[in-house]
Amino acid sequence: MEFRDIRYEVRDGVARLTLNKPDRLNALSWGTWAEIESATEAANSDDAVKAVVITGEGRGFSAGTDLTGQGNEADWPQRPYTGRPGKYRSRYLGTATVYNCVKPTIAAVNGVAVGAGFSLAMACDIRVASEAARFSAIFVKRAIVADTGCTWFLPRIVGMERALEMMYTGRMVGAEEALRIGLVSEVVPADELESRAMALATEIARGPSLAVELNKRLAHEGLNRGLEEQIELEQFLQGITHASEDAAEGRNSFLEKREPVFKGR
Question: Which domain holds residue 71?
Answer without folding.
Answer: 6-205
